[in-house]
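Got a spare moment? Tell me how you read both lines of this record:
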Amino acid sequence: MRRPVARSLAVLAVGAAVMSVGAAAPPDRPAQHDGPTPHAPKVPMAVGYGGAVSSVDTDASAAGIEVLRKGGNAVDAAVATAAALGVTEPYSAGIGGGGYFVYYDARSRTVHTIDGRETAPLTADSGLFLENGKPIPFAEAVTSGLGVGTPGTPATWQRALAAWGNSSLGTVLKPAERLARDGFTVDDTFRSQTAANETRFRHFPDTAELFLPGGRLPVVGSTFKNPDLARTYEELRRKGVDALYRGDIGRDIVNTVNKPPVDPDSGWNARPGDLSPRDLAVYRAKFQPPTKTSYRGLDVYSIAPSSSGGTTVGEALNILERTDLSKASDVQYLHRYIEASRIAFADRGRWVGDPAFEDVPTKDLLSQRFADSRECLIKDDAVLTSPLAPGDPRNPRPCASGGKAAPTTYEGENTTHLTTADRWGNVVAYTLTIEQTGGSGITVPGRGFLLNNELTDFSFAPANPAVHDPNLPGPGKRPRSSISPTIVLDRHDRPVVALGSPGGSTIITTVLQTLTGFLDRQLPLVDAIAAPRASQRNTAQTELEPGLYGSELRQSLEAIGHSFRENPEIGATTGIQRLPDGTWLAAAEKVRRGGGSAMVVHPSR
């Protein structure tokens, strides 16, 4: 069923370009401000040339556009946007976390990646989250020093800029430093995320002082400033990332992790971590080859383990390759998509971990032979039982069943994704995170940023004692992630689309559904992003957003045997498409997370 999609994409591009209205990028800003930048309305789609940025936030997208206008490339813009998100989306990302960076180089027409995932302390072992032989409660691990991994975001920025950027870290951090100093306008999303974390934020005086000004929730429409973060960015600009990995910022991180500054009157048991200056000094953001999957005559590139995103999305696409989804009914399409997701997650749980510690069969997981041996499990008139047992990618047996299932472990649902492109044709898809909304809840005193709780992505104990769990903690080990920044190239190795999403383990299904909606169902990119989502992760019930949960499609799928539960919101995608005339189309969410912000350097008229 492989078929070229160039003509279909051209039709989509024209239709999408016609839909673009009011998508102009904001005017250039002066270098200094007496106050915060006026809050511009979010626009979910923009078409133009000179480069593009798509993120969840207007100020962050504007920071990337500013860098592009001053001669920066897609890498420079990605770092500038990410740093600004550390200001305006501090509960999702920041220098206290990590992420995965995927870069397309237009000159060589090749894709490169950086694994900037956080690592466990060198003293960690498989019993990191056990007390008296039993796992500690998840909520207690989340809000503690025990769940904090060595941050990877600053190292990722430095490695990306040194390898592929046009600008220095000192240059690209300037918009974010200014934004932190002058402030941004509080919106409903920021207030609601603060409210959801209010109780645990009050456990830590430094967090409460920063994010609950005057002891109250921030008011929508007010200006939120973070002078401590502005000073931290200024120090990073002057001294480079060594200020964190070998300097004063790192010293403050270590002290905070090992002795969380908890309010003694709160009664909260903020378990200490065991992070050392050596953990910071030996940390490296790693260059590694991307995953690659052929789909409908296109090449799909993503991030390899320690993230499971590239292998799991890739396996599911390979499973779906044998079905012409463009001709399937809506029910058939969703049924096949759900079942492919279920199977890919079953295999993910058994085989994917940090390849520095585990023998991960990445190539075998992405083989068409293995996908075909799993695809034959799918029936048009029945539903597979979850948790489904994994297959063996090293020894594929058609329609094999049995064995021990590995249920999907919980991952925090917040993170953020950004996508950038430049005038030279380079593209970046970058997902960064501090794990769940608000991370650990612990702010580094005087530094203005939250620490991650990324180590809670490890399995606290084996999901099935009879089966090896590749995601148990270990010294310096990276916990498994679901982050899936993706770049799709055509047969001439030119970019077609780049995208990604936050959402914990729902990242994988969000990226998969958006890709199939765009490539197979021929939805314009902004509509593929906005389409109501389903997420199956090898569990008894599939999650549905309200647009599907309340529809007749749900009833038709239930008649086959599917079981559902409602999830108000799944993911928050951003993406960029290369149009046939060489212009860029940037797309983001219309509604989720308060809507996203798509911008281009020079809008098409």
